[in-house]
Amino acid sequence: MNNAIAVMDSGVGGLTVVKEILRQLPQEKIVYFGDTARTPYGPRDPEEVIRFTREIVDYLIHFKPKMLVIACNTATAVALEDIRSRVDIPVVGVIKPGARAAIKSSVNGKIGVIGTIGTIRSGAYETALKEISPWTEVVSLACPRLVPLVENDQFESEEAYTVVRESLIELQKHTMDCLILGCTHYPFLAPIIAEVMGPEVKLISSDEETAREVSTILSYGNQLAQNEDVPVHQFFCSGDPVIFRKIASAWLDKQLERSPVVWQVPSI
Fold first, then answer.
1. CATH number among 3.40.50.1860, 3.30.310.50, 3.10.290.10, 1.10.10.10, domain 95-206
2. Which of the residues 72, 143, 178, 237 is marked catalytic?
3. pLDDT tens digits, residue range 122-163?
4. Residue 248 main-chain phi, psi, to 5 deg
5. Per DSSP, which regions of 188-242 are E strands?
6. What is the distance between the alpha carbons of residues 96 and 118, in angstroms, rounded to a whole number?
7. Domain 5-93+208-264 adopts which CATH fold?
8. Do domains 5-93+208-264 and 95-206 have the same CATH topology?
């Protein structure tokens, strides 16, 4: 089935999931929407996040996708079940895949979670982790200053190192062997986070496990792309298209080198 996989995020963070989907499933077509004009979602009221998520999903459904990936932890935490009740295609979030990856990787059962205010406030990661392993010790920390670094293309700057170091001071007081990057923007900052946390802490991103879940669901439903033609991907954003395209093109370089890409700023 050659219909697209639709992916949405509050901004550019979901591109980390797209990159992994394209690596694992290179024949699949992607339709992506980044809500860069209204990012970040983390500080917003849950009702507002649900409304924004519904608006984007309503837009993406016009492309008749075979699956929807909510590649935003905040939207997954508060809007996943709402969206599943509104559409008739599989909907995948990023929290449970991230929790599974952390449980598989942790040796001492002590896991840290960093995310937006909304994700941490929801307790969604702690719930998902303890559903799998009730004895897991979870330390959660909201890091609201990190997403703007990524959205403003400053994730490799000196300021980024300073902000990450200051944001993680409290977390460094705890013993853990895994740290979940509970926001899809955070893999952009992974080299700095790894340096600050040290080699004894393994960073866990949901991108690989989410892409694996996408692959499993599509395979089980006999919906993997069979198209011999090169897929044409479509990327949409609600804000500044110049900075969005710059970040997306750089991040997805190898995955997009053989595929035509359409860049647009729609009205939703």
1. 3.40.50.1860
2. 72
3. 999 999 999 999 999 999 999 999 999 999 999 999 999 999
4. -65, -45
5. 202-204, 233-237
6. 16
7. Rossmann fold (3.40.50)
8. yes
Cβ(114)–Cβ(163) below 8 Å: no
CA-wise closest residue to 17 among 213, 193, 240: 213
Q: Six-digit token pair at 105?
A: 């990787």
Q: Is 237 helix (H, G, I), strand (E, B) or coil?
A: strand
The pair of three-digit structure tokens given for residue 35, joined into one six-digit string = 């809500």
72 is catalytic: yes
Among candidate residues 143, 178, 183, 237, the one labeled active-site is 183
- Give the closest residue to 5 by CA, choosing from 71, 72, 52: 71
Residue type, 265: V
Q: Catalytic: 143? A: no
Neighbouring residues of 168: CB distance < 8 A, sequence distance ≥ 6: 114, 141, 143, 193, 196, 197
Q: What tokens does 15 get?
A: 């591109």
pLDDT digits (tens, 9 = 90+) for 91-117: 999 999 999 999 999 999 999 999 999
- Say which residues have a Cβ less than 8 Å from residue 243's Cβ, sequence separation at least 6: 36, 151, 152, 153
The predicted model scores a pTM of 0.94
Dist CA 147 CA 153 (whole Å): 10
The torsion defined by the Cα of 106, 112, 117 and 118, in degrees rounded to 10, comes to 30
CA distance 186 to 201: 15
Indicate the domain borders of the chain. Answer: 5-93+208-264, 95-206
